[in-house]
Design brief:
Blueprint (H helix, E strand, L loop, with lengths): L6 H22 L4 H37 L1 H10 L15
Length: 95
């Protein structure tokens, strides 16, 4: 048991108290293990978002290339998305 009356007992109590405070700060502090764990999860999520955005950019670049080089693609987009028709054509909507 701890004896508070001796110098050795006071040192042990102080050491245990210091160890408890250090452990609490090490785990839950601003740079603690818990914060590092949350930051690593956030970093993984950001990396996944980057991959998704890179895929979206690649798809848009491919669509832009089609738009610049393929006349059939331009006509297809004009007909489907803009609902345009050539003169003398009739458009039928299926419901």
């Amino acid at each position: 048991m701890l004896n508070f009356k001796t110098k050795d007992g006071k040192f042990k109590v102080f050491f245990l108290l210091e160890l408890l405070i250090f452990s609490t700060v090490y785990i839950f502090g601003g740079q603690g293990l818990q914060t590092i764990y949350y930051m690593s999860q956030y970093n993984r999520q950001l990396q996944q978002d980057i991959v998704n955005l890179q895929q979206a950019v690649t798809a848009l670049e491919q669509q832009l290339q089609y738009w610049q080089t393929d006349d059939f693609y331009k006509e297809q987009l004009a007909r489907e998305q803009l609902q345009m028709a050539r003169p003398q054509e009739q458009i039928y909507y299926l419901i």
